[in-house]
Specification:
The protein is elongated. By secondary structure, the chain is α/β, with parallel strands linked by helices. Helix 3 runs parallel beside helix 11, helix 4 runs parallel beside helix 5 and helix 6 crosses helix 7. It has a 6-stranded parallel beta sheet, with helices on both faces. The termini are far apart.
Length: 317
């Protein structure tokens, strides 16, 4: 009887052994913890999906969570990643300065940190590489679009979101290009106001209403992303000024492109979240393999107007 039990036990062990290496290998698959500014914006959803797809090609797994514009929530998400001992952390900071504390904790834990779309501006926080849109260049394109839309003269306002580095660069590029065109070509476009729209549609709608009341002679609005631009469109429609006040957005999300096609938004410098996400994962892979990586990788924008929207195969006919 004892011999029979021993034999049975050996059979069970032998049957389990082939499965053990694969389970161990699965447990060792490198994980990348990703906290994005928000997953309510299609830009960040596309970015996260691209990272997941690219990571699978490199034998890695991506965990994506939403910071929901909340710096404290994002800090807790980074703490969870540290507890999980992820291989790398990717952040799109909810606050470019406040994120420094979370990055410092990851640095202390020996986990490399990368940023996408929005850079960290905190001193002492080490980021291996930042992969993003060329937001400064995109801001310049936005200025060129507003100059084109207004014929080189008029009063404009900015729907801002200055808590994040990417927007700081967009508005800087916008202002620099207007100043340059004023010096070189006599453009006379004046920025008369700047209000925070939070990068979201509802808050930007209210901010745009306030702008129109304070500046009834407003000619144009530069909105720092498509949700902001769509909020401005809604406010203009309510005020009966849609079409008279020109709107330039930033992003190239589907709803924004549809608004461009409908003539509600004049143009967008469009981003390429798929390229940003894939480049970020490729950069992480190179770093983990011991290769040198660039501290900053910028993806250029392209100006997207009504003519582009009318021949865009992605838009519904």
């Amino acid at each position: 009887m004892k011999t029979s039990r021993c034999t049975l036990l050996l059979w069970v062990v032998a049957a389990l052994l082939p499965a053990l290496p694969s389970r161990a290998a699965e447990a060792k698959k490198p994980q990348i913890g990703v906290s994005l500014l928000t997953l309510a914006n299609p830009f960040f959803r596309d970015l996260g999906d691209a990272m997941k797809d690219e990571a699978a090609k490199h034998g890695m797994e991506v965990i994506v969570v939403s910071g929901d514009f909340d710096a404290a929530k994002q800090r807790n998400q980074v703490a969870d990643f540290i507890v999980k001992r992820v291989t790398a952390i990717v952040l799109s900071p909810c606050d470019s300065k406040a994120v420094g504390t979370a990055i410092a904790e990851a640095n202390k834990a020996g986990i490399p940190v990368f940023t996408v779309d929005i850079a960290a501006l905190a001193g002492g926080a080490k980021v291996v590489s930042h992969v993003a849109t060329d937001n400064l260049g995109g801001g310049r394109l936005a200025a060129q679009a507003i100059i084109e839309a207004l014929g080189g003269k008029g009063k404009v306002a900015i729907l801002d979101h200055p808590e994040v580095e990417s927007v700081i660069l967009r508005t800087r590029g916008f202002e620099e290009e207007l100043a340059k065109q004023k010096r070189e070509k006599g453009v006379s476009i004046e920025i008369v106001a700047r209000l925070p729209g939070g990068g979201v549609k509802d808050k930007s709608f209210k901010a745009a209403e306030d702008l129109l009341q304070a500046h009834p002679d407003l000619d144009g609005i530069f909105a720092i992303n498509d949700p902001s631009a769509l909020g401005a469109v809604a406010a203009l429609e309510k005020a009966g000024k849609l079409g008279r006040v020109k709107v330039v957005g930033f992003d190239g999300m589907p709803e924004g492109k549809q608004a461009i096609r409908a003539g509600q938004i004049y143009a967008d410098p469009i981003q390429f979240p798929d390229r940003i996400g894939r480049t970020a994962v490729q950069t992480i892979r190179k770093y983990l393999d011991g290769d040198d990586v660039r501290p900053q990788i910028l993806i250029p924008t392209a100006l997207y107007r009504k003519a582009d929207a009318e021949k865009d195969p992605v838009l519904k006919r």
